[in-house]
Amino acid sequence: GKDQWRLECGRQLMRAQLYSAILALPAIMLAGQGAAACDETILVEYQVYDGRYQIEVNDVYLDSGASQSTSGGIPINDWLLKGENSIRVLMNAQSGEFSVYAICNDGSGKRDFDDAALSGRSSADLTFDVPDPPQRLHLTATPSNDDGLLEAVETLKAAMTAQDFDAVWEGHTAMRSEMEMTGASVKSEAYQMEKIVANIAPKFAANLKTRSVLGGRVWEVFGDDFAPPISDVVSVNGGQVDFKTGSFWMKVDGTWSVYRK
Fold first, then answer.
1. Is there a contact between 252 and 174 (Cβ–Cβ < 8 Å)?
2. C-alpha separations of 138 from 181, 198, 258 in Å
3. Distances (CA, A) of 53 to 6, 65, 119, 138, 257
4. Tens-digit pLDDT profile for residues 106-129
C-alpha cells in the first residue's frame, strides 16, 4: 500500500544521494590536490601584546621582538625540511597568537597547519609536514658534526682582511650553488661581493660558538649576543651596505663554505 510506496521512494532517494556523493568525490579530491599542488609560500604569522617573543624554525633563529603590540608574517620556504618541520615559540607577554600556514602565490588557496594562543611566560611547538619542500641546497646535504668549521671561519676572516676576492668567493661556494639551483643571479652577487671585499674593513665577532640547525645539515656560527662572525658597513657606489656573512655553513664536497650570510 501507501506505506510500502513511501518506503521504496525513500530508498530510491537515498540511493540517488549516495550516487551523487560518489560522483562528487573525484572533483573534491582534485580540488584538494590543486590547493596543495600550487606554487606555495609557507609563513609564520604572529600577533603579540605587551611583551617579548622569539620564533625559531627547525632550530634556526627567525625573529624576536619586544613592544606593546606587534604583528607580522615571515616566509620560511628557505628553512624547510622534507617531512616533519617545527616552529618553536618562546614568549613572555600578556598574550600572543601564532600560526603557520601555506598560501598559494597566486592567491587561489590557503592551507592551515598549526596554531597556538599563549599568555604570560610560555612556549609552544607548532608542527607541520611538508612532503615536497621547495628546492634548496641543504635538502641534498648529509647531517654532520662541526669538525673543521671554526678553522674554515678563520680562513674566511683572513681572506676578508687581505681583501682577497677569489678566496672570499670560494668561501661562499654553498651560497653560490644554491643561487644556481634556484635561478638567482650569481653574476650580480659576484659583482656586489667584489665591490664589498675591495672596500671592507671587517669586524670580527668575539667568542664564536657553533650549533646545528636543520637536523645537522647546516651549522650556525655566532659570537656574543648572536653577532655574525664577519660584518662591516661598507661604502659601495656612493651608498652604504650593512654587510654580514659567515652565519650559516654547510659542507659541499666535504669542504665547509658559507651557505647563508
1. yes
2. 11, 30, 12
3. 64, 6, 11, 27, 31
4. 988 999 999 999 999 999 999 999
